[in-house]
Design goal:
The chain is of the alpha/beta class.
């Protein structure tokens, strides 16, 4: 009946194998004979019929050399052993082979049981057969086996009226299917190119139109010159990338559509893909070595996401097939190696930082350096810091009254107290020079309030020394009177210094150098000359007040010219924390300031009287407080007496020139 509509090719995705009973005789041979006659009738009316065959690893009774009208493909170039296939085949029964053609319906499942590739040629022993789809287009374009050239790993080239059309295949002779149609139920509308109908309905429509000749008969969907695929929906199904349950006849329909429309999956050249992955991985490595580990991880995730999104977009828009598993695994592996290397390098760097700075930085500062990820600039870098120098008053006398054991015990207790306070405040221990402590604030990591912290540290150390003197006094005869009166002087200066590891290649020290460091040392040694235990330069006071406001109170001591410098330097005493100071202390500072104004105005009598009054108010009194031998007020009383005896020139600018260091 189909001959009425004159389809070009009738394709059966059903295996009509020879049905044999237990006695070896064919089952219903009359029906088989009628089917064979119908196939022959279709062939004579211009409709070619293609039947399904499938390979098998067991002998089926069918002879691969008994193919009837079908001719094996002979123009094969490449290694046929790589083709998909098996040793035997299940063929349609002999009557169908005589007038019909044979095509393989083998559809091997890939990962997840999904059919992604369809073998276009299959190997049965040494014979190569076309697939059901390939045989169908050969019949559609009336091609013989000599018109088909198979280049394994490249393409199948169809000659004749197909005009050398190429079907891309891989090393196994398979085509990567470009799925365009995926109906779920019979009758789903896929458009004019591939309508889906019930086979029985087609036969009824043809019967009504051509046999009954009913006036109202509309006839079936147009079949003339078309290929008609017949397959089962209910029992013959599988999984495709677009559906978990797909009638397998649609695999062949999609393959036929790919061939007829030249709508193939376009694979990105592997070489280009791997070059791109290598470049992205290299760029990621180059960038990750210069950024944080978190940034490197974000980059890796972003690139992996870009690969997935980009591959999906190219597939949807242009059927470009980009394998994602291999590139993602390689990219992820390379980034994992880089991240592991980075983590190892950072752990090594952290260990180096701890080893390098752990002996002269507080653990808190060391951990802050480690967490910041900043590698200290070694070998010398210019930074603004506050230099700290301290020295025990009259320490040379201690060695005369203390045994070596006592001296070591005393120094260890004192230096531990000083160092702990310095490091708790974020300072860096530079070195010990006997009883002297040299430290810096603001390096090796940035400390915006370094001057403020240095001033507070100075006051804390003086308070701690007060506590130590009480402790040593309470220990009775263990310590001589000199220890009970122990005092320390501190000098500070803020400015740009050279910071870094200095010394030889085999032994070096993280230290500071420069004129501003020398000035800090002069502040410490000059404190004795001014009767104070805390003396700082003008730059330190300004930097401290910029951060702490008036929290810390300073007493101006005038301007001096220290040894080795030509320019005068304003100097100040750190008097204390404003909230801790007494009214008497504030009165002392006010009276001292008035007397100092008379001094600079060369009003010697008023200055002398003013310093006598401020001396009586000084918080530390000579003869009363342990270790106190003078005060700024008493020192200025002596200076005023010297000025009266030896008046300065009329153009005197108020600068006092220190004679010693």
């Amino acid at each position: 009946m189909l001959s009425y509509e004159k389809p070009s090719v009738l394709v059966w995705d059903i295996i009509y194998a020879d049905r044999v009973g237990v006695n070896g005789e064919s089952i219903d041979p009359e029906a088989d004979s009628d089917f064979a006659l119908t196939t022959d009738h279709l062939a004579h009316s211009g409709t070619s019929t293609v039947f399904a065959a499938v390979t098998s690893d067991e002998y089926t009774g069918d002879d691969i050399h008994d193919l009837g009208a079908t001719r094996p493909l002979t123009q094969i170039y490449g290694d046929t052993s790589q083709l998909f296939g098996d040793s035997h085949v299940i063929l349609p029964f002999p009557g169908l082979r005589e007038s019909g053609y044979i095509g393989s319906v083998d559809a091997p499942r890939g990962s997840g049981g999904i059919v992604r590739r369809m073998p276009m040629v299959v190997r049965v022993g040494e014979v190569v057969l076309p697939s059901l789809a390939l045989q169908s287009v050969m019949r559609f374009w009336e091609l013989e086996d000599g018109d088909v050239e198979v280049r394994i790993g490249d393409a199948i080239i169809l000659g004749g009226v197909a005009n050398d059309r190429r079907i891309p295949i891989d090393e196994e002779g398979a085509l990567l299917i470009n799925y365009r149609y995926e109906p779920i139920q019979p009758g789903d509308d896929l458009g004019d190119e591939m309508p889906t109908v019930e086979y029985f309905d087609v036969l009824v429509d043809i019967h009504q139109k051509h046999v009954v000749e009913a006036p109202e008969a509309k006839g079936p969907v147009p079949l003339e010159g078309k290929m008609l695929l017949v397959g089962e929906y209910s029992t013959d199904s599988g999984t495709t990338p677009r559906s978990k349950l797909t009638p397998l006849v649609y695999l062949h329909a999609n393959v036929l559509n790919n061939i007829l429309a030249n709508d193939y999956v376009r694979s990105v050249p592997k070489g280009l893909l791997w070059v791109w992955i290598a470049l992205v991985a290299t760029l990621g490595g180059w960038l990750s070595l210069r950024r944080s580990i978190l940034w490197a991880m974000v980059y890796s995730v972003a690139v992996a996401g870009l690969i997935v999104v980009g591959a999906s977009a190219l597939w949807i828009s242009g059927s470009w097939w980009i394998p994602m598993v291999g590139p993602l695994v390689c990219f992820g592996g390379s980034q994992s190696i880089l991240l592991a290397h980075r983590v190892r390098a950072e752990q090594r760097a952290k260990a180096e930082i701890r080893g390098m700075f752990g002996t002269y930085l507080s653990p808190v500062v060391v951990e802050r350096m480690v967490k910041s990820g900043e590698q200290p600039a070694l070998g010398g870098v210019s930074e603004e810091i506050t230099a700290y120098f301290s020295d025990i008053q009259s320490f040379s006398a201690f060695s005369e009254v203390l045994s070596a054991t006592q001296l070591v015990e005393l120094l260890n207790e004192y230096l531990t107290a000083c160092t702990d306070i310095i490091q708790e405040s974020g300072g860096t221990l530079d070195k010990y020079i006997g009883d002297a402590v040299v430290a810096m604030f603001g390096a090796p990591i940035d400390q915006p309030d370094h001057a403020y912290q240095a001033c507070r540290t100075t006051l804390r150390i003086q308070r701690r020394l007060d506590e130590l003197r009480e402790k040593w006094t309470s220990e009775g005869d263990k310590w001589p009177e000199l220890v009970h009166q122990m005092r320390t002087r501190v000098g500070l200066n803020t400015g740009t210094c050279m910071i870094g590891n200095m010394g030889s290649r085999s032994r070096f020290n993280y230290t500071m150098m420069g004129d501003n460091v020398n000035l800090a040392a002069r502040m410490e040694s000059g404190a004795k000359s001014w009767g104070t235990f805390n003396m700082v330069a003008q730059s330190t006071r300004e930097a401290c007040e910029k951060v702490g406001g008036d929290e810390i109170v300073f007493r101006p001591l005038g301007r001096i010219k220290v040894a080795g410098r030509t320019q005068p330097v304003p100097i100040h005493e750190i008097s204390g924390i404003r909230t801790d100071m007494t009214d008497q202390h504030f009165a002392c500072l006010a009276q001292f300031e008035k007397a100092l104004a008379h001094y600079h105005a060369q009003e010697w009598t008023q200055a002398a009287e003013g310093f006598v009054q401020s001396a009586a108010l000084e918080p530390l009194q000579p003869g009363r407080d342990p270790g106190v031998k003078s005060s700024p007020s008493t020192i200025y009383q002596q200076i005023v007496r010297d000025m009266i005896e030896n008046p300065p020139p009329t153009d005197w600018d108020g600068v006092y020139e220190m004679k010693g260091k």
